[in-house]
Write a structure and sequence with these properties.
The protein contains 12 helices and 14 strands. With 428 residues, the protein is of the alpha/beta class. It folds into 2 domains: 312 residues, Aminopeptidase, CATH 3.40.630; 112 residues, Alpha-Beta Plaits (2-Layer Sandwich). Helix 1 packs antiparallel against helix 6, helix 2 packs across helix 4 and helix 8 packs antiparallel against helix 9.
Length: 428
Amino acid sequence: MKDIIKNRREFHKYPEKSWDEVRTSARIAQILESYGIKDIFMGTEAVNKDTLKYPIELSPKRREDNMKRAVLQGADEEYVKRTDGYPGVVAVIDTGKSGPAFALRFDIDCLPYEEECDIEAPAQRDGYKSVNTGCTHACGHDAHAAIGLELARRITENIDRYKGTIKLIFQPAEETTLGAESIVDKGHLDNIDYFLAVHLALSAENVPLPSHTLACGVKDFMSCRALDVTFHGKAAHPCGAAQEGRNALLAACSAALNLHSIAHHEKGLCRVNVGKIEGGVCTNTIAPECTIELEYRGQYKEITEYLRDRVFDILDGSALAYGLKYSYIDHGEVPAGCSDDELMETVQQAAENVPWFEKIYFEGNLGGTDDAAVMMNKVQEQGGLGVYIGIGTDITNPLHHPAFDFDEECLEATVDLLEETIKILIMN
């Protein structure tokens, strides 16, 4: 079995949720060092822990538990210790020759639910089904990590063909928040000329990309802000002095229904979703507290501002209607982003040199959010160029489906594409 497939299946078997990716990070670092790469940053050398102080703080216990689990699941103890419980790896390959500075992002976290895998499924048949309860790689990040490692191997084995500096970023916590930001805050995207990221199973012309197809870049990133909103009411007996109660559960439900009624915006994509409601104490008590977890997304700043105003109008109105107050935790905003045409043209040129890609679309569809935009925006603000590439692959189910899997043939083709793209940019 080829290393790229072997690595992908290992990461699939041991998936880790956002900010828990200690085993994955340890294995990535170990493999990178086996290729002779010496400049490897792990733990707080990779991510800025101060970025995580609020609302996500990695407690000593959480970090210790993740480190223990990583060792029990086969990670080398020395590499686990180097993480100190903070996931993420940044590898720097300095060719020793003058040239551009590249940064390539590969996300490594999984999704927080159980994998669905029947007896005929490849993961079940070939022994790489997730062994971690409530964790599954349903968004291809296992593939992305394996692609990054294979690219590292090829570059180090053919270092004479390259110029400049190539930085490979194995990023935690794409599925939540602060993963990319923590790496940017550490300075790893400073003075970068070209930023590249890939994602499997995107679309073009609003149709999923099958195997042997490619979208050279996407421009429809949406910003995303996540809020945990808690309504603070007052308990009372529903058959006694009910008038004294303030029903936080009803306020939360009212807010949820009205949030989903916010009108779309004529100038671009916008989305609102309440993903979770939790509250109340028992059947015979008016709920004194209830929390909703929500997000809103907009393609442009104007749309984001529109959504923010409407969201808080509804929260204020629901609180007023039920005579109570609310508080919220703001998980921060992932910005919108846009690939550069110039770099998309380079990807197109590179793809023409990779026979596996039989149909090439210039622009694809993301139709969602990826915090790679944080890194891309940073590079673009400094005068560099960025691109987010969509790789076509036959899939068993859509992204984020608990039974998602894909055609592994796309893995090596993606590495071929990234190699060719880097080589063209070096020659320019």
